[in-house]
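Late entry, written up from scratch paper. The run itself happened at the end of the previous shift, but nothing got recorded in the book at the time, so transcribing now.
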Amino acid sequence: MLRVMLVDDEPYILQGLQIIVDWEREGYEIVALMTNGQEALEYLKNYTVDLIISDIQMPVMNGLELLEKINEEKISDARFVVLTGYDDFSYTQKAIRSNCHDYILKPVKKEELLSIIRNVSNLTLESHKQKENQEQMQDAFLRINIISLIKGKYDESNIDFVNSHLQLTGGIRFIDIEVASDYIDSESDDYDLRLEQKQLYSVCREVLKDYANHFIFDVSYSEDDYDIGFIYCENMADRKDMFEEEFLITMHRKIEVMMKKPIRMLCGKMVSNISAISKSYSSCHRLNSIKSFHNPKSIYVYEDEVQVSQSGLVLCKNSIDEIINAIENNEQEQIELAVDKLYSELQSCDASENIMDLNLNYLLFQLIHLASEQDDSINQEEIVEYISENAVDSSLIRGSSQHMKRFATEYANYLMELRKSISRGILAEIEAEIRDHYSENISLKYLGDKYHINSSYLGQVFKKKYDMSFKNYLTNYRIKEAAKMVISTDKKINQIAEEVGYKDCDYFIRKFIEIKGCTPSKYRKNNRGE
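Output as recorded:
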């Protein structure tokens, strides 16, 4: 509803203006009735309105003086309409020169008032759309600059732009926010997860309105993540007179309440300025890979989880090297013996959490290096993602040797898959699987289980061969089959969408436009020569 202020010293005129038209039906709400310009001015200093209709001749401060004050002090951007008689036309001309939107002659006629308020409504709506488009374009450009910094590929112009658009004071850290993975419905498809991601983005911006542009959409570690990035700075907590921990807990609680779902936050290491944000971003990867060896939490903070001192910490390097060697050779018995030896050594020195963290982190990153040696074309981030997905076992507490044995065994099998070359025959079978079942809910995990191939590695090999992810390959195939149906049949578009595997017709149409460059209906007309 647009907010209206009426200003006139004659009570009967104020009353008449209220009842002459159906304001609510026209999309307006009368929020203030004032008897002179001074009263109106004081109201505008504290509240916003979209339309002011004011008489010219009033005591204390007349309408023209009110308009001039609004312009001088930039108190309001509301559209201003004056009420005037024939004798006041010289004042009306002056008002128009002072950026008055329009005028209404007394006595006020319903048709004239309706014409003006509908014009104001249309202009305001157009103005809001333009403002929204400008904000979206600015947000998009800001996101591009932030991502350049996050990826470590930037210059001074990127730094200057981000510094001028974000409120950055004190230390800075990158925070990853997402719906907790164990809460996500296994039946959710890309469309459902994307909607949930958009909802999370909106909720985050609503929770921290003053820092809404500090949230970044689509800055995930991989295409399978549906998370939100956030640039945190120490000043945010200071302004609320809070410690950082209190600020993050409060923020997390509000997001969870609005989302009605458990939320996880990974807080990267604190850096001194925005130019070093890539280091904080990278540390989120590290947290993601080691969090399974810690007690499950809603908020992980890098400094709390990865405490590495320059001295006084014991690194059981020989025992860890034995585990790595056993994993490399895929020797189950040696893996168990080496893990027992490591935990026995840690217990004998009464290892603190700091010592445990140091040893586990050393092991994890040696494993990343080991996988890279098997295939140097593999992206280390993909290996970190594998560790994150496969090291999690909520039923085992942190520090469990059984957990470590299970993970080490699984990782040995993963390395074995990396050493194998997946034959063209298996990929051919998978291609046939897609041809025969593309309309069903097939996934890499399903294919990996069916053909006894590690799904993470299968995804990497798939991407190498087809230069696209499995999801994009499946989408392209579905749209290709849909395009055939569009041309060769008279089936309705929603029926075709369902037959190729899309529950949501709007989502199907968007994907069709994205790949074919036009809507299914237009594609049918173009290819039938209609």
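The beta strands are 2-7, 28-34, 51-55, 79-84, 102-105, 172-179, 215-217, 228-233, 263-267, 299-301.
(Scratch paper discarded after transcription.)
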